[in-house]
Amino acid sequence: MIATLAGCSAAEEESASSSEDRGVFERRNTAPDPADNALSPRSAEQAYARIALNCINKQYPNKISHVLNSAADVAEPAKLTPVFYGCFDWHSAVHGHWLLARLWGQDLVPEMDEEIAAALAANFTAEKIAGELAYFQAADRKTFERPYGIAWFLQLTAELRDIANGEGGKAEQARLWLARLQPLEAVIVGNIKDWLPKLAYPIRLGTHNQSAFAFGLFLDWAARSGDRELAGLVREKALGFHRQDRNCPMAYEPSGEDFLSSCLMVADLMRRVMTSEDYADWLSTFLPDIPDNGSDDWLAVGIVNDPTDGKLVHLDGLNLSRAWALEGMASALPASDPRRASLLASASLHGNSGEQAVRTPHYSGSHWLASFATYWRTRRGIDENSSNPDS
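The chain above was modelled as a monomer; its predicted structure follows.
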């Protein structure tokens, strides 16, 4: 079903009908377009940076996943986790900081550089990070935000490493922040290394607990940090879990609250642990129905009927994560592979659909969708990826 405003013109109705035939949900976004306001950001990157700046220190509303060991553990989010307490939940606060580091480090919003650097510096203090570390080291916290939130944390420190490896003032600043975050990073990586050998089965959910998405980010971090032990553990699990996977049931996707594709995230993971030729063969059996004619209508985008519903709005994120996974899959195939065109066409369809939702006035989506859009727009995990042994 397509959501439209009453009184559509004939042209709009014709366009809507065409969209419906292709499985596209055409959102009539009620959020003001920043391009319509001379005082507002004009580029998507500026808009996304503003969203993150507005939420990384916004404590409420807040959803915490918190184990209380005693009455002493009853506290406000900013007391429990002094760095990552905004953006509604811990993991969204983490990738909100990543978004800012990404745009700042890539020089994509130079007119906002000073404001972004000040915001990151205010949160990446030794005192605040010590509070985060204390939280992770408390009893019964080894599973906190595992694997989704800690995967995003490693994406944040991987980003800072990339910036730190450059030259100039930004590199110097990134080295300082990274040094402060490394004790927390070490605890998180240690917890992952303790967990992986015990994980008997893949977690194939379309939400936070999914293993494939997290494994991909773990590998990208390991490639940048030089942690061969973690890279080996993740590769072993990825191949053990998914090497023999066949005929992944895309027809069963999406589930009603997915923001990650169970099938496509596995495919995006496996490109990181296979040569291009092996990956092409594996993909033929894992997703045998990918067309080779360049069409974009073989995979319908997700539909959100109520963007104010924090669970239903997950499907906007699914469209964006599908977009980057499809692009990642295409990037790993040989240049002559005829499936590449259809993968990229569907990626464009999904990404453009997902981006319509990012500037929503509803905090249920805005507190996290900008990070997903930034990950897709900046090709994170693709252009810079060095995890694939064939790359």
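The longest helix spans residues 169-195.
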